[in-house]
Design goal:
Blueprint lengths: L1 E8 L6 H12 L12 E6 L6 H16 L5 E8 L2
Antiparallel strand pairs: 1-2, 1-3
Length: 82
Amino acid sequence: MRARIHVTLKPEVLDPQGAAVEHALSSLGFDEVSDVRVGRYIELSMAGSITEEQARERVRSMCDRLLANLVIEDYRLEITPS
């Protein structure tokens, strides 16, 4: 199985990195850009003969315990066959 995880700051959390990117894009002439949010993308492979639902539960556990800070971040994941 292959997992793709998108981690982003919760909407109510300020994103200084996103603000810096927005400012830089504006200074380069991309004035149409607004509300930039910066996140992380994690992709991993899972070995063994597990079902898609088992893989989803394992990846959720990984996100809850390590890959995302649930106080300030949200995540969404996709599970696909390898």
